[in-house]
Amino acid sequence: MKQKTVRKPAKALTSAPTQVRKRVGYSAHTDATPIVNEPELLSDLRGLIQSARQRVASVANAATTLLCWNVGRRLLRQSLQVGRAAYGKQILATVSQELTAEFGVGFSYPALTRMVRFAEWMTDEHILATLSQELSWSHFIELLPIKDPLARDFYAELCRIERWDVRTLRQKIGGLLFERTALSKKPKAIVATEIAKLRDGQMSLDLVFRDPYLLDLLGLKGAFSERDLESAILRELEGVLLELGSGFSFVARQKRMSVGKDDFYLDLLFFHRHLHRLIAVELKLESFQPAHVGQMELYLRWLDKHERVPGEEAPIGLILCAAADAEQVELLQLNAKSIRVSEYLTELPPLKLLRARLHQAIEHARESAARRLPAHEKVVRPRGVKQAVQPVAAAQPSRKKKKGQS
């Protein structure tokens, strides 16, 4: 007798466990829906949008600056053709009324005057193209009132390199940054040469170091110790680095140096990316003393032997003190020893007093540099140099007048 084959019912298909589905990249609701990392997606989209906006803003800023320069150059050429200042102003007033009615207040009489002054200053179109990639028209408006053309070029180039916003640029100008640099105390021909090198990406020591350093942000009042000063610098490190300038990176505090049986401790150690060298900083509450130089020389030689790596330049020292006698510093010829001496101010004096003091220091330094010129250079060079520095000589009376007014 034939037996019937009984078929067992097929097992119902079951989905993989939730843990398995998640592991292979599918959601718990359905096997057909992949998991989306929403935070990552939003981050990518925001990056694309912000990048596009920055490119659009950069192109718009460059176009606006170029427009203002071309307008100023055209108006300047018209004024030169007329040959009379009064008639040129009349033309400017008439043109501004027509342009304002058609294009808005961006072409008012004061705005057109700024454009003409901009064209007078910026005669090199290549330099303009480079600067306009980083500086907006608002930056140039802040630079135009600076009367010294070398100072104006200095601020423009540092603003490009360090990418200051308009507010930071205004603070640097108000803080007399140019007057506090070692560069400002050099002859004007050297200043112009150093700024030209800066455009090619070469930054010198005279551009990096300042005197005095403005450390009022530390909030130190009355009597304080070197440890208080050092701790305040580290507490406000971000602001201090902004005052020191672009390129400074903090390395160590109280750097230990073992020499023979003795241990020495350097207050602060930095590294400068543009100079490719270590910078040793010693803080002094008292006025500068010649004995400080020997201590710094020891630190620099130790750093050169034990910390300097291949590819770096020799370390340089900065002695920050409450006061320094310019004649003592000059006689010690510290530049040959890679040592700089600067004062620091924890409380700002009135701007008028600070400006007068800095201008006096600049004049003293330039007079000293002129006295050190060899005799044959004093006799032979004026014929060749006179023509190159003639505009500077013409600008000196206005600078002295400004000093008397301040």
In short:
The protein is an alpha/beta fold and 406 residues long.
Low-confidence stretches: 18-27, 376-406
Strand residue percentage? 5-15%
CATH topology of the largest domain: Trna Endonuclease, Chain: A, domain 1
Please count the helical segments: 17
Number of domains: 3
Q: Which series of helices and strands comes N to C?
A: HHHHHHHHHHHEHHEEEHEHEHH
CATH architecture of the largest domain: 3-Layer(aba) Sandwich
What is the level 1 CATH name of the largest domain?
Alpha Beta
Mind telling me the C-alpha Rg?
32 Å
Structural class by sheet pairing and helices: alpha/beta
Query: Largest sheet, order of strands side by side?
Result: 1-6-5-4-3-2
Structure report:
With 406 residues, the protein is α/β, with parallel strands linked by helices. It has 3 domains: 50-123, no CATH class; 146-208 and 349-374 and 384-406, no CATH class; 209-348, Trna Endonuclease, Chain: A, domain 1 (3-Layer(aba) Sandwich). It has 17 helices and 6 strands. It has a 6-stranded mixed sheet with strand order 1-6-5-4-3-2, sandwiched between helices. Helix 2 (38-82) runs antiparallel to helix 3, helix 2 packs across helix 4 (109-121) and helix 7 (149-162) packs parallel to helix 10 (188-199). The longest helix is centred in the first third of the chain and has 45 residues, at 38-82. The N and C termini lie far apart (128 Å).
Fill in the keyword field for this structure.
single chain; 406 residues; alpha/beta; Trna Endonuclease, Chain: A, domain 1; 3 domains; six-stranded mixed β-sheet; 17 helices; 57% helix; 11% strand; globular; disordered C terminus
